[in-house]
Structure formats: structure tokens, C-alpha cells
Amino acid sequence: MHLPPRILITSGPTREYLDPVRFLTNASSGRMGIALAEAVFECGKLPVVVSGPVSQPYPEAAEVYRVETTEQMLRCCKMLFPDCEGVIGAAAPCDFRPSQYSEQKLTKSNAETNFLLRLEPTPDILAALGRMKRQDQWMIGFALETQNGREHALAKLHCKNCDLIVLNSPESIDREDATVEVFDAQERRVAQFAGTKRHIATKLLSLAKEIV
């Protein structure tokens, strides 16, 4: 039985818990990951989605793995990536997590007047996959920036070993539409797309087919 090529997609936010009920996260909705899964399926390939907590459903044709923390997303991706032809890192994993986890809910009664929260970096998922990437695999990253966007995106392009990097902005979070720029490994701006995330996903996959 011939199976379609698999493309790994990371999607949505992650959560980093401070105690059993509180966590750090962000407003990522997973809409871009959903749009990419739909576009991948329409290309005749199997979308393999590793998703943080989102409320929107993924296409029934997608193979979906649900995770919560950045560490869980990393472990799942490392397990799946060797059997995929490429990866699109559209997730917005937390960059930091609390240095200490409290087994009990932290309350005002047992806290000092000013509560000090210490954070430590979480693992870099795309950088880890970039180190695993074979010659026959490709990688597309996303960079959401608030300032010096091109500079930061190009830095991520190289340190994560991406073939393409997609630069977007916070205005795209939890919206149906977006405007993005795409840069290749030679730091050239090879495309700019605007419109619905579904439109952008289709254009991005067409571009990847030509370049990577």
C-alpha cells in the first residue's frame, strides 16, 4: 500500500505551569496550523499536526497529536520528524517556563506582598529539529516579531537551520487574515503574501515546492 508523503506541522500555543491551575501561555489560536493542514492535504500529502491547546478543530484527514507544554511538543516532534519529508513550525511555544513548580495552588495568604516569579528558557523546538534534519528534508519556520522584524527573522532562519522563514506580526494572532514576508536561506525576500491564512498557507506550500 502506497502511503502519501507526511509533512509535520506544529501549531497553537503551549502552556508552562506555575501550579496546578495557573500557567504561562500566549494568544495563538492555531488558525495558521489549521490552514496549513488543509493546504497540505489538498496537495495530496498527509498533514501530521503536533498541537498545543486550541479550540478550533483540525481537518479530519490530519493525524493530530495533542500536547500542552513545550517539552511535550519537542518530544513528540522529535519522534515524528524522521518519518516526514519536511516540517512547518507554525506553533507559538512559550519561550520561558517557571523555574519552580508548586504542587499546591499558590494563594495570597502564603505569598509575600510582592511575589517574585523566576523563569528559565524552554527548549527550542525548531532548532532541535534543525539539528536532526537530513539532506532530503526541509524546514519552514515562522517568526512573529514586534521590532527589527527582518533582522530577528533572518537570525532565526540561520540558527534553526530553516530553508525558509515566514515573518509576521502580533496583529495576525487569532485573526482569519494576515500579511507575511518570506525569506530564503540566502536572506532574499522571495515573497510577500496577504489575505486569509488559508490563502497564505496555499501560497506558502506552492513556494516551498519551487524552492526547497
How would you describe the overall organization of this protein?
There is one protein chain. The chain has 212 residues and is α/β, with parallel strands linked by helices. The chain has one domain: CoaB-like (Rossmann fold, 3-Layer(aba) Sandwich). 27% of the residues lie in helices and 27% in strands. The protein has five helices and twelve strands. The chain has helices spanning 31-42, 70-80, 125-132, 149-159, 197-211; strands spanning 6-11, 16-17, 23-24, 46-51, 63-66, 86-89, 96-98, 119-121, 138-144, 164-168, 177-184, 189-196. The strands form three sheets. Strands 5-4-1-6-9-10-11-12 form an eight-stranded mixed sheet, sandwiched between helices. It has a two-stranded antiparallel sheet with strand order 2-3. A hairpin with an 8-residue loop joins β10 and β11. It is globular.
Q: Can you tell me the CATH class?
A: Alpha Beta
Give the total of domains.
Answer: 1
Q: For the report, how would you describe the main beta sheet?
A: 8 strands, mixed
Order of helices and strands: EEEHEEHEEEHEHEEEH
Radius of gyration: 18 Å
Number of strands: 12
Query: How far do the termini sit from each other?
Result: 27 Å
Structure in a nutshell:
This protein is α/β, with parallel strands linked by helices and 212 residues long. Helices cover 27% and strands 27% of the residues. Strands 5-4-1-6-9-10-11-12 form an 8-stranded mixed beta sheet, sandwiched between helices.
